[in-house]
Amino acid sequence: MCGIVGYVGHRPASDLLLDGLSRLEYRGYDSAGIAVVEDREIAVRKRRGRVAGLIELIESHPVEGSIGIGHTRWATHGDPSDVNSHPHLDESGRVVLVHNGVIENHDRLKARLSETGCGFRSSTDTEVVAQLIGWHLEQFIESGHAADDPETCWSALRATLDELEGTYGLGVLFRDCPGHLWAARCGSPLVIGVGEQEYFLASDTSPLIGYTRDVVYLDDHDTARLGRDEIEVRHRDVGTRDVAVQTIQDEAVDVELGEFPHYMLKEIYEQPDSIRSAMRGRMDGDDATAVFGGLNADAGELRRIDRIVLTACGTSWHAGLVGEYLIEEFARIPTEVEYASELRYRNAPLTDTTMVFAITQSGETADTLAAVRECRRKGHKTLAICNTVGSTIAREADGGIYLHAGPEIGVASTKAFTSQVTVLALLALYLGRMRHMSFRAGEAFLESLEAMPELVARTLECHDAVREVARRFADCGNFLYLGRQYNFPVALEGALKLKEISYIHAEGYPAAEMKHGPIALVDERTPSVFVTPRGGVYEKVVSNLEEIKARGGPVIAIAGPDDERIAGLVDEVIPVPDVPEFLQPLVTSIPLQLLAYEVALLRGCDVDRPRNLAKSVTVE
Ligand code: F6R
């Protein structure tokens, strides 16, 4: 949440900062701002609202200079307003900074600084950091340190960081030391891009694309100083540390919308390819199993596992629930999916033979990261199923599996879900084949999986039918989503998609549970979306569906092709191809993604930037 950019080099900083902010806007869009230093003057431009508004402001009030910082905000402390927008200056005007994270002891620090006469302009926790750096800087200057000596700036920054409790990614400029840009990280990601006589700073690699592929990831408790020709990274207790430059791969490249009006739609349509990428190089036909390069666990260790915990948040948790069903069915290993925010605090009794997998698109979700750290602290092997290469969870986990889905920019997760399910299916196969699963069963599994990209492409043909359904029901205020077995997580995911981008209240339930309470909600204005393709629980779901119809509730069914029986019972049918039950989530989730998208459009919602949300939830 919140996006940070920084630049020091030879080009006009404001162009690069605005370009970077546009690409980071999915992390928060309450306000945007930049600060540039030139001739020992700090120029700040910021305003409430989108980056587009900031661009207009800078067109009419340009800033000069080749060193600067920028920020796009997801408000935590203080309402989204011009004054609460970042960057924030200290009172003396010597220090300016941008921040991602939460300073938990900001009240105490603010009270102390106020006693020294410091006046605050905003109601943010961030301004406290700027004021505190300014206060320490003043102390160092008064005791004889030169304001233009980088060591003085390091010292003021270090003294401040030592007082902070909470999380931060910071980009900081000092007016009197104008050739340098400082960064500091604790709990909020930061990456440095290394160019030719220029350095970039960013919350993730998306703003670097097209400028450089060489990056340095900062670790927690690192601070960095960037000059046009130099970089120095210091770690809290160790001092200056070696800087390891890594090269990011091609897959981070495609962040353009192309012919699509929204990232969400583009990403829905990318799913045949993203599922193919999740499988690429991982299907071993000779042994009828899967192969994974980065698990960092040998066969003996994997055979000893007698319990698996999958931990995640939101959509990734829903994929985890599909994973639980897959692993238990095919590998017969008891598996639970745990909300990361619960796992981290509840002291779950994990044993030496428990393996933990954290599932995360971004690799930066604060709760998932904390759960990973907690499990590792207790000595449990913790692996990641992650999309974002080089993200914090990917780097901190003991090993893992990348999704290779390419960047997911739409705030509502779509292709990451189907890629996670694909990888979890491969994992179930892999673990199953090490145990009792026969060669023949493994072969059939692989064959079914291999057909999925094509079947998902065919599923997308339901888009017109979905549009019709959306038109008919877009003004309803409540929806129920119901499914059984593998389609229960799909019902949860469908309800989440609708809630988050169209702001309609929706509940996902196992179809049979509806009788135990939610059926009281059913009336002629509350559609029930039944996920009911052909399979072992088909008859049971049809009975549940009839129970809703008997009470006058409209029913929309996601059903197999040419399912006349369902067509005769329900108000609307959206057809999906027949696929084996264990892979149904890969097709049944698609019309639900499209339905949420179409309903949101009809209701005039901002599909890629739903209110109150941001991609990458980096606060607890
Ligand atoms: C919903 C959505 C969120 C994320 C959740 C976890 O569309 O995107 O529910 O799934 O915040 O994010 P990751 O997977 O990045 O850990």
What does this structure look like?
The chain has 620 residues and is of the alpha/beta class. The chain has 3 domains: 3-248, Aminohydrolase, N-terminal nucleophile (Ntn) domain (Glutamine Phosphoribosylpyrophosphate, subunit 1, domain 1), CATH 3.60.20; 250-450, Rossmann fold (3-Layer(aba) Sandwich), CATH 3.40.50; 461-605, Glucose-6-phosphate isomerase like protein, domain 1 (Rossmann fold, 3-Layer(aba) Sandwich). An 8-stranded antiparallel beta sheet has the order 3-2-4-1-10-9-11-15, covered by helices on one side. A 7-stranded antiparallel beta sheet has the order 5-6-7-8-12-13-14, with helices on one face. The longest helix has 19 residues, at 415-433. The chain is globular, with a radius of gyration of 26 Å. The protein binds fructose -6-phosphate. The site of fructose -6-phosphate (F6R) has 14 residues, from helix 9 and helix 17. Fructose -6-phosphate (F6R) binds next to helix 9 and helix 17.
Outline:
With 620 residues, this protein is α/β, with parallel strands linked by helices. Strand 21, helix 12 (392-396) and strand 22 form a beta-alpha-beta unit. The model has no long low-confidence stretch (mean pLDDT 94).
